[in-house]
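Exercise: predict the fold of this chain.
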Amino acid sequence: MNEPIPVSRAVDGGTAKLMPDLDRPHAWLLTVDGAPQSYVDLDDPVHLEFEYARRIAHVLDAAADPGAPLDVLHLGGGGLMLPRYLAATRPGSHQVVIEADRGLLELVAEHLPLRPGAGITVRPRDARTALETAPEGSADVIVADVFGGSRVPAHLTSVEYARAAARALRPGGWYVANLADGAPFAFLRSQLATYRTAFAHLALIAEPSVLRGRRFGNAVLVASQAEPPVAVLARRTAADAFPARVEYGAALERFMGGAAPVRDVDATPSPEPPDGAFSVG
């Protein structure tokens, strides 16, 4: 049996690479300009290699009764790791994936094809435009994992964007976003203040070392008009290989401090990660 061969291709956002995991016969790591984007095991879509992806999966698992289908809008596609997970754990779900990089979509379709009948529709569009034109109250969950290289684009960080997300969700629906920052957390704190203008409840999931400012890393934001199941999420994230903490309520308010919301006119991308924070070569 021939070993899988790495694939490298120029896409709209840079140079994409698919690198096989030699320990898992049909698993691939997708990077763009060295920044990890997705890890996909075609044989086992429930396997999530990235810690932040597992944290988002915990939110998806808690969003409805086990196995119940959901209507989900994914902003940012990559290798479609979370849509594949949801299709496996909640059959019958209707999922729309928005990915602006057409070259990346072509690469993924060619080398990491979706299973027939997965219920996943992929559309090559800008995330903000797709969100603003989504029907009102059409999604149970919105998952945002949009990075230009290693940074969240500025137009996806504003009050106007947050309000568009709130409008597209059904009552009780959840917005879940992968963000990245490090001390002194100017970006992350401003994002919390921004989403507080559009949602009644916020929670933040991250490793304690990140929250204490010891290193740059991912933080998963959960926003909803209904109170999230904090205790359930806390138990599940604490049991992961790299345990995380769920900040909510007064603790999250203290973390937010006096941060101000960001509007379109002042929006900037998330900070550039330090050298080596995410890059895998």
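Check your answer against the key: The longest strand covers residues 169-181.
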